[in-house]
Amino acid sequence: MMMAASPAQPRRRGYCPGVLAPMEVGDGLLVRVRVPAGILTAAQARRIAALGRELGNGLVDLSHRGNLQLRGLDADGLPPLYAALESLGLLAADVESEAVRNVLTAPAAGLDPQGFDVRAAALALDARLAADAAVRGLTPKFGWLVCGGGVGHLADSSTDVRFDAVADGAGFAFRVALGGTLATAVPIGLCAPAGLPAVAAAIARTFIALRAARDGAPRRMAGLVRETGAGAFAALPGLTPLADAAPPVRAPRAVLGVQSGWLGVAFPFGRLDVDRLDALAGLAERQGCGEIRLTPWRALLLPGVADGTEIAALGGVLDPADVRLRLTACSGAGGCDVGTTDTHADALALARRAPALAAAAGAVHVSGCSKGCAHPAPAAVTLTARAGRYGVDINAAASGAARWPDLSPAEAVDKVAALDALYRQRAEPGVGAEAFLATLAPADL
Q1: How confident is the model at residue 4 (pLDDT cuts 50, 70, 90)?
Q2: Residues 433, 421: Cα–Cα separation, whole Å
């Protein structure tokens, strides 16, 4: 029997959940549905909503890798869930093939007039990973990315292997790069769209072989390339040399609200429920083309929809400047077996009490434990729960020792509200929250 982790010792499970690999969390079993190319038909979305209502607790999460998560299931609900997802074409053949299908696709592919349509290549990659037994040795969380550019690009998404479309004569080719964002990944060459699955499989086999030959080798591509260089990958068949190694320039991303070809809607903390998902599917059928696109920004795109009136009534966020989108929070008490605070409610309280500071921050993070799942990196303000109380820190990650420990949730919100007041009183125009907080003297704090 698995022992529950104590609040002071968050469990590190070491794997990513799937449908065939459900994860036990605070509200039951969580299953993550991988959606090829991130494209759900409205009918699929309706059926998933019904499954969440019938078999789970009705909560739906949008993951940072463009997948859907159903919560609150039990073991008896898994067989009917598997049967239903198989009928929808959303069930992998086995745990191993499911685990390697971590393909993030630009959600506006085929909708964005400024980008290339990479849907066929992304679907072909997903199919190859599912079918190729030689790639089963990839490490957990190993990820792939297929991006067509345009205003819905994935330039700042970090992953193990990137395929970024670039103009090539009358069409496009893929710039292949390893271990990072568009700006930081190491480029290894160009490949034709039709050759992407074979190139990807060769990269996977090379990664597995290089790791097997080295004791204690890094588990992710960026670390391995730092140790071994990228030469073994650049020499793979199917790649041609890059004329220019510099990454292509991407304009600022714009996906929320009414765009040219879709309507983008986000939900605070990536949390919605089956009724909202069902309503969005109905809207996609009535006003759009009958599709819902999943994104890594915990948002959804509704192709062809141009009116956000119903979306706002559902609690969706259409404005990218909405302060709630600067807040990150894990599931907290009830959703995680080590969470001891209502992280979502406390984060929304910060949005109300400290809106100026949150709006000027890269992130404000409320974590149910020191693991910091929702935002492992430092944030302008971080609240870390331990035994029902928070430690508050600035420009820090959840794993560190808090500057103000052992505060009640109300006291923690009051502390951040006081920092917000300082920011509004003293910050120069245009100064971000992180920079401002770094200048404060101990007497100010």
Answers
A1: very low
A2: 12
